Amino acid sequence: MASSSDMGSADFESLSSTSDVELLKRAWRNEKAAPEILPYEGDLVERAKGQIELVEENIEAYVENGIDPLVVSLYQMDLDRTQFLLRSYLRVRLLKIEKFMFHSLKSEEAESRLSEQEIVFARRCADDLAKHFEESVLRKLPENYQSVLKQSLISEVDDMVPEPHLDTFVACRSKSHFTLNLYEEGESTQTEEMYRGDLYFIRYKIVKGAIESGKMDLI
């Protein structure tokens, strides 16, 4: 049987002290604040799942070996917090997929932001919703108005598909010093110096690239 000192050795590290937990917190916070679905953090999610399994095994071993209950409870708090972050991150994404399911499936770029499981979920939701509309409403309308995606068959775009509002203003914090173009391509070349730690309230589409590259965080 391992002693208390052995069980408390470097083979087990508190989840709260790992960088992956901070990265998961950042991914969750950004996903909650972004008006669109952000690229899926697949590697981070898998690492977090692995850490959770490891900590669960170690907590069980701690209990079996009579480690101080207070110590066990502290590790359990770390574990609960990480599980909450992971579940909340995935839940926020599912809510966005339900809202923007047709938009998320209509282009390779949009679909590439989803995990394989999320793509399956989005397709199932889209199929079920389309079937429901067709059976309850669309088949009763004139032929030109029986599309799930368009107001009428003469529409040139899918004008019935909800899309994220990228012009939404968001609060964000700069993580480094860099230069940001304040306008979309072709509008203006005016730039602004972003300084580490400073807070900004700005259109999401302007900082979209900086968010995805890790230069800025949404808050």
Automatic annotation (TrEMBL):
Residues 164-219 form the DNA replication complex GINS protein SLD5 C-terminal domain. Belongs to the GINS4/SLD5 family. InterPro entries: GINS_A, GINS_bundle-like_dom_sf, GINS_Sld5, SLD5_C, Sld5_GINS_A. The keyword rRNA processing does not apply. It is found in: Nucleus. PANTHER family: DNA REPLICATION COMPLEX GINS PROTEIN SLD5, SLD5 PROTEIN. SUPFAM superfamilies: GINS helical bundle-like (SSF158573), PriA/YqbF domain (SSF160059). The GINS complex plays an essential role in the initiation of DNA replication. The gene is A06p046700.1_BraROA. Keywords: DNA replication, Nucleus. This is DNA replication complex GINS protein SLD5. Gene3D superfamilies: 1.20.58.1030.
